[in-house]
Amino acid sequence: MSFKRLPDLLQRGRKYFLQVPLSSSRLQPLYLLWCHKKSTSVGQKDSVDSSSVTENFKEATHAIDDLYSSEQRSTVLQLLNSASEEELSSVKLMRGRKSINVIEYRNEHGPFQDLQSLLQVPQFQYKTAVKVCNFILNPLAKQERKEKKTHSATSAMKFIKPEIEREKLETVNSIVSIVFGTRKIAWAHVNRQLGVQDWQQQECTVFMKGAYMPTMYLEEPFPPFQISSVVSKIPKADFYVLEKSGLSTLNASLFPVVLHLRTVEAMLYALLHKTFSHDSQHVVLSMARSAVGKHFGLMVGDTRTSGIELVKQLLLEAVTQTEPSVSFPRDKVGSYRSLLSLNKQWRDEELCDSLLQAVAFFELLILNNTT
Question: What architecture is the 155-369 domain classified under in CATH?
Fold first, then answer.
């Protein structure tokens, strides 16, 4: 049959389609093609995208059940009809709402009688249903993905110093990400579900003023700006991740800044490790600033650009989406957004970078390694 005649044939059969149940596996493909043609604009009436129609036609005319043997169909149906919501969520593409929709379909219509019935479940289209079936039938693919993610996480480990055991990473519940500049020290306490539990910064305007004096970092007469006072406010977590700057010590003009950053890093490491470690295990880590920049696409060449706009987007998603990637305390979202919207001489780069570093830590080393 020529595709040029297909629209006319579908139009003449319109009344017949409307009188026959759409559950018919033979008529459903033609009805789908008629709907596709109906949605085409008037200006394109005489020009049919043959490749697009052909692809839709091939998908529609091949029932999902025809793709598998009777034994394979039985395996898939057994899981779909007996698995719990948690077990369904472990199947690729069925996390979240899709697994709930399968349970609700079973409760309302009874067990699935064939694989084609998946198309009647909300959020399931042809390609999605086929991928779900393939995943259920090929458990090795799951292991291959796990190995690939493990390799990716292992590669990311080179950005973390000192090295820590994979087993310890898998048990992490929360971390405190700490970023410091020449005027501020900021930290973000974030849990494994990317929920922000504490997020703040402390002004340290006395830093980088006048001659270099080690006393201003720890001792009197500058108690409000002591590193120890910052550490006393930091909540307890499994790990403390310090940002590792990429500034070169070979640049003479930047040497005072590099010296300052190294001093703060060393003091934070010593105080945090002494305060929170009880078993001589490393709890304070350093994470390369460039690794976080690459993860979020903030690098321009070797230079890391601002992440403020990205954090603003995360805050917006927290109040506009039901399942945001990062969640914040509801009573503080407004104040966070207002803080980042203010026009100030010194932007809150450290505050934003502390949050992005925490998210990158979990996504690179932990979340991408779970299945």
Answer: 2-Layer Sandwich (3.30)
